[in-house]
Specification:
This protein is mainly alpha-helical. About 70% of the residues lie in helices and about 0% in strands. The longest helix has about 40 residues.
Length: about 130
């Protein structure tokens, strides 16, 4: 009876870490705020904790416990890689958009010169006080 209780508690612990990691990766809404939040560093720490538990309990788990832990870790790691690649793709897209904005400034109301260029040419046309 005690072994069943311990097995249930161990599986619940792994499940708790799994759900926490899914929230940290933004796969599930935060139950406190009801918002999707992404904290990839925290998710990595939680996955590392589960890896540590796997190592420390090696040879001391039932087949059911071991399979559940391994499957949970595999699922979390795949989701982590997927979320990281989404972040990298979106940051690459943002970087390209920023580069485009820098190389192709928008013109104001039909004028071909930017405000900076207007200011620069204005100061060049004014006589300097040194003369």
């Amino acid at each position: 009876m005690t072994e069943d209780k311990n097995t249930h508690m161990f599986l619940s612990l792994i499940y708790m870490f799994q759900m926490q990691t899914m929230v940290q990766m933004g796969k599930l809404a935060n139950p406190m705020t009801q918002k999707i939040e992404r904290e990839m560093e925290a998710a990595q720490v939680t996955i590392d904790m589960l890896d540590m538990l796997k190592e420390k309990t090696k040879g001391n788990l039932t087949d059911e416990e071991s399979k559940f832990l391994e499957q949970s870790l595999a699922d979390l790691k795949l989701n982590f890689v997927e979320e990281k690649s989404k972040i990298e793709k979106s940051s690459d897209t943002e970087a390209k958009d920023e580069k485009k904005e820098i190389t192709e400034p928008e013109t104001e109301s039909g004028s071909d010169t930017s405000p900076e260029e207007k200011e620069s040419s204005k100061s060049e046309s004014e006589p300097s006080s040194k003369e």
